[in-house]
Specification:
The structure holds 2 protein chains of 2 kinds. By secondary structure, chain A is α/β, with parallel strands linked by helices. In chain A, 47% of the residues lie in helices and 14% in strands. Chain A folds into 2 domains: 126 residues, Nitrogenase molybdenum iron protein domain (Rossmann fold); 121 residues, Nitrogenase molybdenum iron protein domain (Rossmann fold). In chain A, the strands form 2 sheets. In chain A, strands 3-2-1-4-5 form a 5-stranded parallel β-sheet, sandwiched between helices. In chain A, helix 3 links the parallel strand 2 and strand 3. Helix content of chain B is 76%, strand content 0%. Chain B has a single domain, classed as ABC transporter involved in vitamin B12 uptake, BtuC (Orthogonal Bundle). By secondary structure, chain B is an all-alpha fold.
Amino acid sequence: MSKHIVNLLVLFSSIIALAASTYAGPKRIASLNLCTDELLLSLADPDQIISLTWLAREESLSPFFEPARRYHKNNGRASDVIPLNPDLVFLSEFSPASTLGLLETVGVKSVVIPEPRTIIQLLENIRAMSSAIDQVKKGEKLMSLFSSRLKSITEDKNEQQISALLLSPGIASFGSSAVKIEILKMLNIRVLNQERPSLANRYLSVEELTRSSPDFVIIDKHSSDYPSVSEEILKHPLIQSSLKTIEVEAKDWLCSTHNLLDTIEHINAKIGHTKNRS
Amino acid sequence: MVNTPQIPQKRLIAILALPCFFLFSLASIFPTSPSFSVQESIQLATGFLTQNSTTHVGLQKEIFLELKVPRAILGLAVGISLGLAGAGLQGLLHNPLAEPGVMGISSFGALGASIAFYSGAYSLIPLALPLGGILGAVICSILLIVGVRAIPKTSTIILLGLALSALGGALNALVLSLSPNPFAALEIVFWQMGSLADRTMSQVYLSVPIMFVGWLLLFQSAGQLRVLGLGEETAVSLGVEINRLRLMVIIGSSLAVGAAVSVVGVIGFIGLIVPHLLRPFVGHDPSRLMPVSALGGGILLLLADLFVRTLPVFSAELKIGVLTALIGTPFFIYLIFRSEISRGFSGEDM
């Protein structure tokens, strides 16, 4: 009986070893952009990854700084990863053309992941990356999880329309991705950065900000222990006394990936909490 | 050259006080951003005065108290500090080109303040910010005085000042580059180009009393600076304690300028332009020049501030230091040429 069990174990291990040896997916993957780093860490097996950007290791910029520190760091340049002999490199649409050109010249396969402008494009990015790294099932699971979570969050949308202004330190109104805005709209939140051109993509003064009278100001907080004039200005007494602010960790929704939903959920909960209190 | 004052000092002070008060009032009610059109600005300003605005009256009041009043007070106080320190330094160094910005005092003040800010000292003790600014300004002033005593030539003093100014700016950029916050690179512009935008009453409480002490010291030294104008030996024979006088001007300018730059950054050339514009009216006597330069500095800075608040450029407000540098640099070059021409290109300093 025990001999049979041993034989069966040997047979199973041989099948597993054979499957592993015939696995055709890429095994040495590098990413040259913070947002492709984030997606790659969610989709790839840990031993498939060989290099991520230095930004992914920064606690103030990346929610995945700890796992990212296990890998070789690059500065977003092709020359940083070519010596590692990668079989697949991910870039963003904002990566320099020369980076893509160099990878093509040396014959390294590369995939450009575009910045998603819609939720559909965000899902397409997950599909494209999971297919490129031969993790289709993981990709499908992630997409399904994202869609069901989005549905559940938007079911709890605000009954009355609420206005919000998305700001970064220094009272900067740029950098609000279209996907963020699309999801917030699904929650019945009007994003003034998009609605009013005078408030979009620029540095605002405290007076402009207070006179724009949004119901909420959503501020990107940078988890840095070091002070900055840009963050100090957000503590202006006029902002504190006349506006309702919601702070979110900038790194948690810097990239338009499936991870956005954590922050969106936090914002919606804060709005609900504030409304209930008032 | 005989410099006969054309207008009695008291009358000139009265003449300058009027626009100063008018501009201060305007700065206290005018919108603080160029994004409002002229029509909107007038509506908002008159709406506030008549309490007849579409905006909530409570918000109007808060904007007035928390935003416009501190900005107007700082505009006036910083202008007074720069104008007064400029006139005082010109009297002490016998140099018409001396000015806190050109001589590096402002840059070193900003360096001291930014070290206090980015090291976190300001978060623990807010007073560390103006103290850092003052310490930086004192260090630069001492270096200048040492330089002046070693080589008392006009061109050497100016070159030394320019070198210190560049060094202060570079060290400030270094401090910010080493600071691990992600906005440091952007903030170099604030410290080097200055801004009165979005200041608070806390910054007024923190800096204006210190500036005031600096003004008192400078005003107190004005009479002795007048005697110093006759030459060091004469001044000593008339009972002027030169070292004490130097110390008073250095400490006075450092308190005024250091506290000013610690809350608004470096705003250059006010201390250069104002005494030159007013000298034809009151003459070279520092005791006559300094009070009117103080008022003139306040007027010029309030005027410059109102200009940047209404000039619709780019997507944000123009930094006030950019405007003063655009006006001040050609003026500075003109003064250098004029001083060389008056010396007949003698090659004195070559």
